[in-house]
């Protein structure tokens, strides 16, 4: 093993003078040692979502809490839009009049259709990917 004397001296000086370096060196000396023999394979399986990567109860709880919070946020947004629609809906009517008289409802329906189509295509792609099919 070739050890660069200059690098060795820099590390020794840092160990003597730098408190942060001393903390890191102390933590490395107290490390538990080598990882388990199958550590890399287990990590790769966990990343790939293999059978060894079974969801933990904490992960399931977090997933359901996230869904609940997203639902509450969505309902709050819908409530806000319903309460304040009169204030900003007039702006759409003015824009629609400039564009040839199309109503704001038509534009809202078109935007909703775009969002729904995008969501449906994303869901289809995810389902197709889950079953390994193409197209």
Structure, described:
The chain has 135 residues and is mainly alpha-helical. Helix 1 (5-17) packs across helix 2 (19-29). It has helices spanning 5-17, 19-29, 39-48, 57-98, 104-130. The chain is elongated, with a radius of gyration of 29 Å. The chain has two domains: 5-44, no CATH class; 58-130. It is built from five helices and no strands. The chain starts with a helix and ends in a 5-residue tail after the last helix. Helix content is 76%, strand content 0%.
Structural class: mainly alpha
Shape: elongated
Backbone CA Rg: 29 Å
How many beta-strand segments? Answer: 0
Low-confidence stretches: none
Name the average pLDDT.
Answer: 79
Number of domains: 2
Instruction: Estimate what percentage of residues fall within beta strands.
Output: under 5%
**Helix and strand string, N-terminal first?**
HHHHH
End-to-end Cα distance, whole Å, is: 54 Å
The helix count comes to 5
Percentage of helical residues?
Answer: over 70%
**Largest sheet features:** none
Question: What's this model, at a glance?
Answer:
The protein has 135 residues and is mainly α. The chain contains five helices and no strands.
């Amino acid at each position: 093993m070739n050890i660069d004397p200059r690098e060795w001296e820099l590390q020794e000086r840092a160990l003597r003078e730098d408190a942060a370096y001393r903390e890191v060196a102390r933590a490395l000396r107290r490390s538990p040692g080598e990882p388990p023999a199958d550590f890399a394979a287990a990590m790769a399986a966990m990343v790939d979502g293999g059978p060894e990567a079974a969801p933990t109860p904490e992960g399931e709880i977090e997933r359901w809490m996230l869904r609940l919070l997203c639902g509450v946020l969505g309902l709050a947004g819908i409530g806000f839009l319903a309460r304040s629609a009169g204030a900003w809906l007039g702006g759409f009517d003015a824009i629609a009049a400039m564009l040839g008289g199309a109503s704001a409802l038509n534009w809202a329906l078109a935007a909703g259709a775009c969002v729904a189509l995008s969501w449906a295509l994303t869901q289809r792609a995810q389902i197709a990917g889950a079953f390994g099919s193409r197209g």
